[in-house]
Amino acid sequence: QVQLVESGGGLVQAGGSLRLSCAASGRTLTNYVMGWFRQAPGKEREFVATISGSGGMTYYADSVKGRFTISRDNAKNTVYLQMNTLKPEDTAVYYCAAKMTPPYGLGYNDKQYNYWGQGTQVTVSS
Question: Which pLDDT score, from 0 to 100, does residue 24 have?
């Protein structure tokens, strides 16, 4: 069992930055692919970014590519999402998730993930 707790959300002006953290407990994250997803009011949850267990591979949604960076510190059992040049359309609840391996491979679909955090609100004002 893995417990995930997100933090770092808040209110920021357009063009600003935030860094989200996802701290895990219960298991070491080394064997888990990690992902960030978000859900805006009235919309379905959408994929944001994913990172392999070693941190060597990452993949981003087109909407955040070049602005967001996912990273992980397995020694601290923590995953991060650095968000720069934020836009109002980035406003959402952001969730981190853990995907067991095997099966191997990055996770682009929320149905691939086994554990979820409670989410942290990010609001970007125009």
Answer: 95
